[in-house]
Specification:
By secondary structure, this protein is α/β, with parallel strands linked by helices. The chain has eight helices and twelve strands. The structure holds zinc ion (ZN). The site of zinc ion (ZN) has 5 residues, from strand 2.
Amino acid sequence: MSAPYIPTSGLISKLKRRLTRLQARKSMDCAQGRFLVSFSFDDFPKSAAQTGAEILQSFGWRGTYYTSAAFENTSNHLGDLFSAADVSTLIANGHEIGCHTENHIDCALNPPVIIEREIRRNQNRLRALGAPIPTSFAFPYGETSAAAKTLLGQHYTTLRGVRPGINRRFADAHQLSAVAIEGTLADKDTPLAYADDLGASPGWLIFYTHDVRDTPGEWGCTPELFKAVCTAVDEAGFEVLPVGKAMASLSVMEKAA
Ligand SMILES: [Zn+2]
């Protein structure tokens, strides 16, 4: 098993990331009097499709699964990844299948022509698995560029990053903030602090994680932690929708306003 790819973290890439957040934006008001939460899973591991979905469904909720088709029937640091049957079951149960490029590429380093081919091929493979055309996209590693935001914004209604935060009045639909659920129950303070923050004023809080299992990898969580976050969201009475449905309902409100 090869080591997971980690994007560069030098000063230049940090400055580029900061600049990219200001470029190719699609301004959007996510604070329209509602307290919205979405749960999403990236890549995605079988444990997210099974344990993760079971937990969400026990609360009556559905999630968004950002899928890289090349991961089908493979294993990596996240454990076993999804199968065709996992995709079918998720769709049958009302979950959303989003796009995450075919080969989980770094969108900051690849030219538009490659990204375009990646999403077309991912879409074709997802369609063969019975998935509707995705409207939601998440950048692998959270990495993007102005060119990638512009291109992908023509294909998807939302593009999600990994910069933590709550999407509020001046959100960027081309690079939505998202909060990681990572680790064990001992790591609950960060995600729960964001849930508390949402309670203070309207907005859209998007959580993401990877594997959901007793011994999660670095970017996954235990079922106990995932349940603890769900319980806090449930007790707060927030509205929980998959990313695509949350975006659609916010867009309708924005147009009507
Ligand atoms: Zn990913």
